[in-house]
Amino acid sequence: MIRFLSVALAVFSLAGCATITRGTKDALVVNSTPQGAQVKLSNGETCTGTPCTFKLPRKSELNALISKDRCQPQQVRVTNRVAGGGGAAMAGNVIFGGIIGAGVDVGSGAMLELVPNPVEVTLDCQK
């Protein structure tokens, strides 16, 4: 009986864990006007034509360089902040005594979201 209660309590305390419910990665979307621009992230990832989607750790902080032939390139800083859903999951950890889960969420960045997301850029192009 004690073993059953221990397992049930462990499963219940993990139910609100942002690492489990939200994951540690976020989809960063980059759009440009005009479409078809190249995107190069400061972490080395690239895309050959917008719109692009990158799967990145939620705690990432990086620069996105958006460029296209005959257009002025633009750089956008992407950072992170506590997400509404991430904060709620973190609060659930604290309320239900999931200190270990709260620590995992903080360490993994699961309570965060990337901003701005989507990245929207209008390029100044010559005709």
Strand content: 35-45%
Q: Low-confidence runs (pLDDT<50, min 5 residues)?
A: 11-16
Tally of helical runs: 4
Q: Which outline best applies? A: elongated
How many domains make up the coordinates?
1
Radius of gyration: 19 Å
Structural class: alpha+beta
Number of strands: 10
Order of helices and strands: HHEEEEEEEHHEEE
Q: What distance separates the N and C termini?
A: 76 Å
Give helix % range: 25-40%
Major sheet: 5 strands, antiparallel
Mean pLDDT equals: 80
The side-by-side strand order for the widest beta sheet comes to 3-2-5-7-8
Keywords: Initiation factor, Protein biosynthesis, Signal
GO molecular function: translation initiation factor activity
Protein name: Translation initiation factor 2
Overview of the molecule:
By secondary structure, the chain is α+β, with helices and mostly antiparallel strands. It has four helices and ten strands, in the order ααβββββββααβββ. Strand 2 and strand 3 form a beta hairpin. The strands form three sheets. It has a five-stranded antiparallel β-sheet with strand order 3-2-5-7-8. It has a three-stranded mixed β-sheet with strand order 4-1-9, with no helix packed on it. The model is unreliable at 11-16 (pLDDT under 50). The protein has helices spanning 2-14, 18-21, 84-95, 99-108; strands spanning 25-33, 38-41, 46-47, 52-57, 62-67, 71-72, 74-82, 112-115, 119-122, 124-125. This is Translation initiation factor 2. Residues 1-20 form the signal peptide.
